[in-house]
Amino acid sequence: MHSSTRHLKLALLAICTVVSIGTFGYMLIEGWSLLDSLYMSVVTLATVGYREVHLLSTSGMIFTIFLIVFGVGIIAYSIGSFAQFMVEGHLQKLLGRRQVEKKIAKLTGHYIVCGFGRIGSIICREFNERPCPFVVIEQHGDYCEKIAAEGYLYIQGNATEDDVLLAAGIERARGLITVVTSDADNVYITLTARGLCPDVYILSRAGDEGSEKKLSRAGATKVISPYNIGASRMAQAILRPSVMDFIEIATAGQNLELQLEEILVQNASRLVGISLEQTGVRKEFGLIIVGIRSGTAPMIFNPAAETVIVAGDILIALGPQPSIVKLENIARAS
Question: What CA–CA distance (Å, rounded) separates 210 from 225?
């Protein structure tokens, strides 16, 4: 693409140069005005066959012959360079888009983010830093250019349409996050996604107070109001600053000293069937299990040492990031 652009710039410069030479040549040889000379140069180089502005002298005829021989070749080269630029640019976009579609088709266990506004862009940044596979659905062209610049996978379209969600792999997705600015659109997206995939986890943004119940009835697994959360967090930062500092340290993805993470215990893990005390997570890894979620049952906070771990449990672990990684590996492998 850079080579085609360079050729196009050279071609435009060559056209301007040869037209200028022709114009000033007729002005010097024939003594014509600037407009007459420019007109004669253009019709000669374009080979349109219009009449001559004035009768040419012998010197003017010779100059015209050289202008046609050299100038027409330059014009032909310029037209070819322009065509090459257009074709290669179109093909590059087409091939690039097909590569993106192939990558999306291979995704499984990923997340679908509907909307790339202020909240959607932050969610994508967090997913990308983790990293976590995801694809963005956005219908506005300006936002799509920003998504492409970030290197994220995306589909340009309306997330309320079945075909768009299917193209994003809703049937293979682990979850869907809808954070478009309109609550009505979030409801429609939730309804569409729930109809296409009854088991998918759906997280929806609510702007107005009354929208939370509507989104829940539409099928959202969880509804979050960013404004309520932001206001509550600001209040807690004043009322309980030390608690908020601790939460920020524990939940910050970039923090390497302390991390709060949820860990899924799989069937093949050696943790299955033994108690928390027997796992040795406190002694060996320096981790604290602050909670356990088992299926749809309420979460157990500060579980007792004799609590037995079963497959499918989600452990909420607090501790150093390297130890978190070790526990995640044990929770996955036998």
Answer: 11
- Of 121, 107, 117, 175, give the one whose Cα is nearest residue 150: 121
Sign of the dihedral defined by the CA atoms of residues 265, 269, 272, 276, in that order = negative
Question: What are 74-127's pLDDT values in tens digits?
Answer: 877 777 777 766 665 555 565 567 888 889 999 999 999 999 988 999 999 989
pTM reported for the whole predicted model = 0.59
Domains of the chain: 2-102 (1.10.287.70), 108-230 (3.40.50.720), 255-332 (3.30.70.1450)
For residue 194, which of 218, 159, 166 has the smallest C-alpha distance? 218
Taking the CA atoms of residue 117, residue 119, residue 122 and residue 123 in that order, the dihedral angle to the nearest 10 degrees is -110
CA atoms 234, 240, 243, 245: torsion sign: positive
Q: What is the SS3 assignment for 71?
A: helix
Residue 305's H or E segment, with its range, is: none
